[in-house]
Design goal:
4 domains; Immunoglobulin-like; 30 strands; 404 residues; 43% strand; four-stranded mixed beta sheet; mainly beta
Length: 404
Amino acid sequence: MNVVLDGSKILPTIVLEFGQVVSGQATDTLGNPIDSVNLAVDDWVSKKRLFTPGDKTDSLGNYRIVIPNGTYRFRYAPAPGRRQVGVQLDTVKINGRDTVINVTLRSGSFVSATIVDTSFTPLGTPIRGVDLDMEDTSGNKIFLPRNTSDSLGKLTVVAPGNVYDFLFVPPRDSHFIAKKVRSFALASDTAITQALNRGVLLTVRVVDSLNQAVPFADLDVIREFPTRNELFTPTDNADPFGIIKVAVPPDSYTIVINPPSGAVNFDTLTLPDLVRILNDTTIDVILPGQPVRVTPPGEERILDGYPNPFRPAASPLIYFPVDLTTLPGDWKASLTIFTPAGEIVFKDEKQLSGGLMNGRELFWNGHNDDDEPAASGVYFCKIILRELGGSQRMEKVLKAALIR
């Protein structure tokens, strides 16, 4: 919780949820304890990370956290510089009892990568924010802590010996083209330098016939000449606003929009003509099918933020009022600020009282989670309300313009 202390303030009553103890030990393959292994716990559905004090192993390799009942993803990340391989456990169910989860971390090889842009200098300029993913021969990605390049374009991960495809994934709004290096045999410590080419940015907005965004629609970009070949575009799924962004080499392409996985009310759309993409290009498409009008429940209770545009020099905070005047009980409200590229800038949670207009409890001061001023621009603001002790849930996504 972030609280602005501009004088004397009475903080709201905080209700702590009852949870279950999850404890265990991290060891190597010989049974030796491993200290400083960090455990991250994410909700399996929302992907939100839980606040879990005690999630780092001590000198005996032990950890102990308390979390509510639910289904989670557990990720165990060794300290930087350690040769152990991280462990990820999916769909971990915690239901009504304390649980012991011990993990064994095997040894692996260091993979040190430097990612560069060779557009302007032969030696290359470092590229920051590129993810390195590794897929085994079955197509499964392995868990790699700290797999994003830093300001020097460098990253180091640890992986077990195997044959992998290396996937270099630039940031979503970047003009750098993603790269797949196939069938890399990892048998020992390895250092590689990978150059990424610059391309043009293709933006596709996918809506249905009611002009509603179609999240998770999938884009295929197919080069027809000299041979038919689908491009490697790892950021080709639509965001919550139906927006897809991928960088491609300038050329002519067949564009295919596939329905979200499991959606039976939409059909695949193939644009009838080759699309010539020589510069940054935006395409609006209507996905054929039978749409269902979606009205998020309770959306009208989450009001627009004010002031908007938000100028910190004139007003230090932007507020997001929530009208609970006709709803009793207590509510947990979460506020997430993120960029159009989906990068989370700020997160906060508050407890709100029912039966009231909560006008100034949810706010943002224009800083990120490291308390650094966020850049001027347009941000998306997602607000989720959950009834404590009940089943009601409401959410809404707003836009806010930050001007410095």
